[in-house]
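S2.1 Query sequence (LacI family transcriptional regulator)
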Amino acid sequence: MADVAKLAGVSHQTVSRVLNDHPKVRKETRARVLRAITALGYRRNLTARALVTRRSHRLGVVSFDTILYGPASTVHGIERAAREAGYFVSIMSLRTIDRAGVNEAIGHLAEQGVDGVVVVAPQRAAAQALADLPPGLPAVAVEGRHEGEVAVVSVDQREGARHATAHLLALGHDTVWHVSGPDDWLEAEGRQEGWRAALAAAGREIPEVLAGDWTPRSGYRAGRVLAARVAEVTAVFVANDQMALGLLRAFSEAGVRVPEQVSVVGFDDIPEAAYFTPALTTVRQDFGEVGRLSIGLLLKQIESSGTSGYDHLIVPPRFVIRDSTGRARSALPY
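Output structure tokens follow.
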């Protein structure tokens, strides 16, 4: 640090202020110090900094080993937001989610001295584990329930599903069938609730739910069942885009035309959704915003020593209309 101060022509204290982003540093001085830091390749001693500030500037994230687009994108959004805020991230990725495993992961991160944790909690077991957080550890749950003493950031799954279902009803479909996610996922529960609410509000029949597990294979199986009932099925809301991909494959094999015979809506807006055949109408989740808000809430707790309250921030979804939805057969002119 002394070398940086000498090259920049400032005091040791001024360099320290720049490194800690102190507001009372002139723009020109800050720029000169930053140039000196770059020229010298200076790196801060984080261990020494932690001893002074009593903060590690490291955050913990608990997620689980998955290739699913939603959870993976959520973790990426959290990591990016933390890095932009000047924090390192330690990620504990669990192969399966259960209360004991989540508690063990949180305990391990706390032993590492993280300043706080974000728990990606889309399943009931993870949400329940939040009741066992170590005292005084700042924490935020992503996609968890707003119950107890923990802040939560979530996408409005219910509203996204309601909008998707209402869109199909507005196209003249008498009712909308649903391929759901796994029962133990809070997101699947919220999407099913939104679907049911939209049908009930319109006074429409609520068909039986076809259970899926988020994979294209389960969507394919559901598609084969629905293709055999194409005389009565004209619209399907699928709880994620991967299952919608499998469903579209089953429809294609059975000769069911989308959207001419059956309209299909997915959820997530994965990067490939625009390139499905046909391009998939779906519900987009803003995972970048989820990451930004969750890190913002966590830092608010850290800076206030846990006295900032337990907020619940809801990120609105966005409905994306493409080619997989159209007017119902009964609504088309002859």
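The chain has three domains: 2-44, 54-155+286-317, 157-284+320-331. The CA atoms of residues 221 and 247 lie 7 Å apart.
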